[in-house]
UniProtKB/TrEMBL annotation:
Belongs to the proteasome subunit p55 family. Pfam families: Dynamin_M (PF01031), Dynamin_N (PF00350), GED (PF02212), PCI (PF01399), PSMD12-CSN4_N (PF22241), RPN5_C (PF18098). Keywords: Coiled coil, GTP-binding, Nucleotide-binding, Proteasome. Residues 1031-1041, 1099-1115 have a biased composition (Pro residues). GO terms for molecular function: GTP binding; GTPase activity; microtubule binding. The keyword Coiled coil applies. Residues 146-173 form a coiled coil. Residues 1172-1263 form the GED domain. SMART domains: DYNc, GED, PINT. It comes from the Eukaryota. Residues 1010-1030, 1069-1098, 1116-1132 have a biased composition (Low complexity). One of its GO terms (cellular component) is microtubule. This is Dynamin domain containing protein. It comes from Acanthamoeba castellanii (strain ATCC 30010 / Neff).
């Protein structure tokens, strides 16, 4: 048996179950056999193999594995390498061998590789183990490791190509048992060898097997660095600076590299340089800016300055840049060898940057000035501009005669109108914003003396208000009433449970125990928030403060007490009908509601609690108290509690309409404030952040908060306000908040340092400031808020219309609705087929256009590819001609052969035609599936039945369509019309054949003349080089070509090769008659129309054409040869004459047996070639006629029988099958999903309508 066959044998998959336990026997015998093998290796191994066979046949896998391990170890200890290889092969090929056993034998052998004596032994064992493991999945990992060892050895020998090819065979990415680290390391080795080999295409393919997700794991950081270093080599060969920069940036962005300054500095340097060298694009510019803003780049000032050049829209002077960076860049290890290319590319990037800058600031510029600004010769300027225009980076036109470059792009009329409309909109928005700013300034300066114009405006306004009572009510609206309006909007949206509108509000953020809750209680003036150890605020608290008027006319009658109007109370949104007068109960309700959603063990929830507090002691405010930022999870809090809280906080403060109230303890470092840090994420410019400093009274001696209060440390546009909360002792003693506020005011006014800013400190000032900020913020957001609500209301209305109205109750109403749906679907189907649909796609063909594509592209192209001679060889045609003649020898080509062959080819047109029907049928089904009207989406059962009925209709129409097309093919097969006006006919076909033969003969004669001339020149040269005095041989002259043969295009008669036209020595007998009569002369001894007499020379000895030239040896065509050359040959290869002795002692000849199958395998004669070409010409001509007919009639038949029939009958079919009263309830059963979406859309529309009514109460002119 071949060794390769032995090696690749698979073990039997049907491994036996354990039938007998040999563990005790193996335990006893194994030490004894091991000792015997040490002295008598051959006998010991044989006995161990016998024991292995016994355990294997008994199905004891553990014992078998132990025995095999012992055999391999014994051979290794004896260092008998040939026996070891033999044993390994024998073990692997044994029947029903256990997989674990084979795997163990391979692993034990591999473990012994370090102790092998020489390289040759190691190579021999590796080859043996690779042969054993080939094709076995359970040892694929071991085979991969062996292959890698072999590749390393080949590489050490210098065979890098062979090593790369070996390693490429292993697809480790599909190995399920290999460790991920080893897989990545293996793939990196494959990439490295491919790069060393120079196979960069294969290296790119293999590199795609490594994903960024796999490299992002912390344990693969060094592998990530190695991978990107290899990719740097690949991209360097491709000269792809952008990907080189990405690879270096990925190396730099690895934690293990960031921890080592000696590693991240080169990576960041190369990332910056290659990003600058990369051609301009969106990805390049993004990477360039990400590198530029990296903080560590500040430690490399030279390269930070380089990136600043390219990130600033200013011109870069190339001489300056070159003098500054030439030395540094050329010393980089990656650019030392190709410094000239580096500087050339850098100059190109500088020029491109300058062109972009000039195009941004100039409309047109003179070419000399342009070249001067670019530090570039004028001859190279046009090349740079052309490249950038071609790449779409800039738009420019060069006027060479005037030497001007223009950057003005001519705008289309539609673009001009759009720009005009956009400018008008911007102007109106700017005007509206200006009006808001003026109103805000009027509100801020409301106490200052008014001008005469303003007094006249107020007077006129008052007159108008007095004339219109409703306008009077609106005119009295002040800025203070804006906050209650926003509160109403908030209530409306919270009642629906949605947060679709970004309403203006103040969001309170801060770290745990920073005093947020105390600040809120001071603002409210009541003690109502939960308190305790650790995190207390575990759900967002939306606190709406509503000021109660103190005017007796506007007092709210709560009870019969005289002071009832001054009472304070609270209301929760989740308990709308309950009023809480006791603020202790408010605290308890907050605790209960928090525990209900978040649990009782410090869990958090993002669901807000909405609380309204009515009091005459508060200003109108809307505040959101968020959980404090904590670091360490406690209780039921998850491990990522800090991330969850930060995410929740960011969800609130990232909204543009949110004002951030950052609470920070003054006795901590302001730069470490969690509140300011997270506020900077959402509001980096500090435009909507106000700082609150608590615990000022608890600062260490010798420290103060003046710099913070004066906005000098971390500036905020809204500044900082200092407050003093109650201490824990005050809370325990239940000190009233109003008393605490008095103590706070006294502290600031009496403090020697803070009394200068006492008027801007304290809770009252904080409340007023927040009230003013919120009102101004609302005023600025109001136009945008109105526009957004109006837009959402329109979208909600449109969405509600798509779900339709609720169903009617009566059968007649249901019937009308059903007919409406059927009619709509039928109309949509017809429009889709005819191309009249209203939602036509602009990106792809759809509907009837796809059917047209099938007819004119797919079907027509398929028929055009059919060659009538493809499926027919010359032997097939010869056989058909012989079969059509029967036992007689035909003088002419039989028509039966032509009809037989042409029918066979016409039959090939049937399958594409029937496939065209199926394709159109599939497209019609596709149209049905795409008709997702709102009515069908609303009624799932109706849609299912409509699709079923229409598919049934299409199926019914498809059968007669296919029958029609099959009949068309049958009609073509029934009668071969050789009188068709487009058919070439016999005479035309013969003419075509003669013309082709004449052209071929002329080419052969020309080639023969060239050969004779070459031979003549060679003979003359040989004679001239001959010895003097030797008689020269006569030089044969080239035989002239007759004029009738040289001008083949004027003589249609065929030119036959020498000897083929002569029949029985008649040189003038080659012609049409002779071609059809197979070389036999007619009666009379002379061909009809032949004028030449018989040749005097016998046929067997033709005269040479030239004296002195050797005459060709030609055998006269005998009768038997003529018959044998007719093209038919028996399947037997050797003719044997069998002699049989007769009774008289003589011998007689016996005929051969007739073979079962007779095929035409001999070379065709000239007559057969002529007949074959004639048949082929006739076939092509007639097949083209039939193909045109089929190509024209098949689409017409499909359109009539399938497309139009289905289009015209679809409505009648649907009505006949679906319009039945018994089906109404089932068909018009609305899905629960649609009903729920309609309810949700209606609820949203109602909410938005209410919001519109609320906002309509606000008139900008009234504020």
């Amino acid at each position: 048996m071949d060794m390769n066959t032995i090696y690749t044998q698979q073990p039997d998959d049907n491994e036996k179950k354990m039938e007998q336990d040999f563990s005790e026997e193996v335990k006893v015998k194994l030490p004894e056999l091991r000792e015997q093998a040490k002295t008598q290796l051959a006998e010991g191994v044989d006995r161990l193999l016998a024991l292995e066979k016994q355990t294997r046949q008994g199905g004891d896998e553990p014992s078998t594995t132990k025995v095999v391990r012992c055999i391999v170890e014994v051979c290794l200890e004896a260092r008998d390498w040939p026996r070891l290889k033999e044993v390994l092969v024998v073990i692997s090929k044994r029947r029903q061998q256990f997989r674990n056993t084979i795997q163990t034998s391979v692993q034990v052998t591999m473990d012994a590789f370090p102790s092998l004596p020489d390289k040759a032994t190691k190579l021999d064992l590796i080859d043996t183990l690779r042969a054993i493991t080939e094709g076995k999945i359970f040892v694929e990992v071991e085979r991969a490791r062996l292959t890698r060892m072999l590749a390393q050895m080949k590489e050490e020998e210098g065979n890098v190509n062979e090593a790369a090819e070996l390693l490429q065979e292993v697809q480790v990415e599909s190995f399920g048992t290999m460790d991920a680290r080893e897989k990545l390391d293996f793939i990196l080795e494959q990439i490295r060898l491919c790069l060393a080999k120079g196979d960069f295409v294969r290296a790119q393919i293999i590199s795609r097997k490594v994903t960024n997700k796999a490299l992002s794991k912390p344990e693969f950081q060094e592998i990530k660095v190695s991978y990107h270093l290899l990719m740097v080599k690949f991209h360097t060969h491709q000269k792809d600076y952008l990907n080189i920069a990405r690879s270096h940036w990925a190396i730099y962005d690895t934690p293990v590299v960031l921890a080592d300054k000696a590693r991240w500095q080169p990576a960041l340097t190369l990332a910056a340089v290659n990003a600058a060298l990369a051609p301009y694009g969106n990805e390049q510019y993004d990477l360039l800016n990400r590198i530029f803003i990296d903080k560590r780049l500040g430690e490399l000032p030279q390269y930070k300055k380089l990136l600043k050049y390219f990130t600033t829209t200013e011109l870069i002077r190339w001489p300056t840049l070159l003098g500054e960076y030439k030395g540094a860049l050329t010393q980089l290890p990656s650019f030392a060898e190709n410094s000239e290319t580096l500087l050339k590319d850098l100059q190109a990037r500088v020029v491109e940057h300058n062109i972009r800058v000039i195009a941004q600031y100039y409309e047109r510029i003179a070419t000399p000035r342009f070249a001067q600004l670019l530090d570039l010769p004028e001859s190279e300027l046009e090349r740079f501009i052309s490249d950038m225009v071609s790449n779409g980076v800039v738009f420019a036109k060069i006027d060479r005669p005037r030497a001007v470059v223009s950057f003005i792009k001519r705008k289309e009329p539609s673009d001009v109108l759009n720009e005009y409309s956009h400018n008008i909109s911007d102007l109106l928005n700017l005007l509206e914003k200006t009006c808001h700013l003026i109103h805000r300034e009027n509100m801020v300066l409301g106490g200052s003396p008014s001008t005469k114009i303003r007094q006249n405006t107020k007077r006129e306004r008052r007159d108008i208000v007095e004339a219109h009572p409703r306008r009077k009510a609106l005119a009295t609206m002040s800025m203070d009433q804006l906050i209650p309006v926003i509160n109403k909007l908030q209530d409306v949206f919270n009642a629906l449970g949605t947060d679709a509108i970004d309403l203006p509000q103040i969001v309170v953020v801060g770290s745990q125990s920073s005093g947020k809750s105390s600040v809120l209680e001071n603002i409210v003036g009541r003690d109502f928030l939960p308190r305790g150890q650790g995190i207390v605020t575990r759900r967002p608290l939306v606190l709406q403060l509503i000021n109660l008027p103190t005017d007796p006319k506007k007092k709210k009658n709560v009870d019969d007490d005289d002071d009832s109007a001054l009472k304070e109370w609270g209301e929760f949104l989740h308990k709308p009908n309950e009023i809480f007068y006791d603020f202790n109960q408010i605290r308890e309700e907050i605790v209960r509601e928090t525990d209900r959603m978040s649990g009782k063990n410090k869990g958090i929830s993002h669901m807000p609690i909405n609380l309204k507090i009515y009091s005459p002691h508060v200003l109108n405010l809307t505040l959101v108290d968020l959980p404090g930022i904590t670091k360490v999870p406690v209780g039921d809090q998850p491990a990522d509690i800090e991330i969850q809280i930060r995410t929740m906080v960011l969800q609130y403060i990232e909204r543009p309409n949110a004002v951030i109230l950052a609470v920070t303890a003054a006795n901590t470092d302001l730069s470490n404030s969690d509140a300011l840090q997270i506020a900077a994420v959402a509001d980096p410019d500090g435009q909507r952040t106000i700082g609150v400093l608590t615990k000022i009274d608890l600062m260490d001696a010798g420290t103060d908060a003046m710099d913070m209060l004066l906005n000098r440390v971390i500036p905020l546009r809204l500044g900082y306000i200092g407050v003093i909360n109650r201490s824990q002792q005050d809370i325990i003693k239940k000190k009233p908040i109003r008393a605490a506020l008095k103590a706070e005011a006294e502290y600031f006014t009496t403090h020697p340092l803070y009394r200068s800013v006492a008027s801007r400190c304290g809770t009252p000032f904080l409340s007023k400031t927040l009230n003013k900020i919120l009102m101004n913020h609302i005023k600025e957001c109001l136009p945008e808020l109105k526009a957004k609500i109006n837009k959402m209301a329109g979208e909600a209305q449109a969405e509600l219309l798509t779900y339709g109205d609720p169903l009617y109750d009566g059968k007649s109403s249901q019937g009308a609705l059903l007919l409406q749906v059927i009619t709509k679907f039928s109309t949509d189907y017809k429009n889709a087929v005819e191309g009249k649909s209203t939602d036509l796609s602009l990106s792809e063909l759809c509907g009837g256009a796809r059917i047209n594509y099938i007819f004119n592209d797919i079907f027509a192209r398929c028929l055009g590819r059919i060659n009538p001679n493809d499926d027919m060889t010359m032997n097939d045609i010869r056989t058909a001609i012989r079969n059509a003649t029967g036992p007689r020898a035909a003088l002419f080509v039989p028509e039966a052969a032509f009809e037989l062959l042409v029918r066979r080819q016409i039959q090939r047109l049937e399958d594409p035609s029937l496939q065209c029907v199926d394709l159109v049928y599939d497209e019609l089904q596709r149209i049905i599936a795409q008709l997702e009207s709102k009515e069908l989406l609303r009624f799932a059962n109706l849609r299912e039945r409509v699709v079923e009925v229409v598919n049934g209709l299409l199926q019914k129409c498809r059968s007669p369509t296919k029958a029609m097309i099959s009949n068309m093919i049958a009609v073509e097969l029934a009668y071969i019309n050789t009188n068709h006006p487009d058919f070439v006919g016999g005479g035309g076909a013969i003419t075509q054949v003669f013309e082709r033969m004449a052209v071929t003969h002329a080419q052969e004669q020309q080639m023969m003349m060239q050969q004779q001339q070459a031979m003549l020149a060679q003979q003359q040269q040989q004679q001239m080089q001959g010895q003097p005095g030797q008689p020269s041989q006569p030089v044969p002259q080239p035989q002239p070509v007759p004029q009738s043969q040289s001008k083949a295009t004027r003589t249609p008669a065929p030119m036959m090769p020498q000897g083929q036209g002569d029949i029985n020595g008649q040189p003038g007998s080659n012609g049409f008659f002779n071609m059809f009569f197979g070389g036999q002369a007619p009666p009379g001894g002379q061909a009809q129309g032949a004028q030449a007499p018989r040749s005097a020379a016998p046929p067997s000895t033709p005269m040479p054409a030239t004296p002195g030239a050797p005459a060709p040896r030609m055998a006269p065509p005998s009768a038997s040869a003529s018959r044998s050359g007719s093209g038919m040959s028996r399947t037997t290869s050797v003719d044997k004459k069998v002699k049989k002795t007769t009774a008289s002692g003589g011998k007689s000849e016996k005929l051969d047996q007739v073979p079962a199958t007779i095929r035409a395998i001999s070379a065709p004669t000239d007559k057969e070639k002529f007949e074959t070409e004639l048949i082929q010409s006739l076939l092509v001509s007639y097949f083209d006629i039939v193909r045109k007919n089929i190509q024209d009639l098949v689409p017409k038949s499909i359109m009539h029988f399938l497309v139009n029939q289905a289009k015209d009958s679809i409505q009648n079919e649907l009505v006949a099958n679906l319009y039945k009263e018994d089906y109404f309830d089932n068909l018009l059963e609305e899905s629960s999903a649609v009903a729920s979406r309609r309810t949700a859309a209606k609820g949203m529309l109602d909410v938005l309508t209410k919001a519109q009514l609320i906002l309509n109460e606000v008139r900008e002119s009234s504020i």
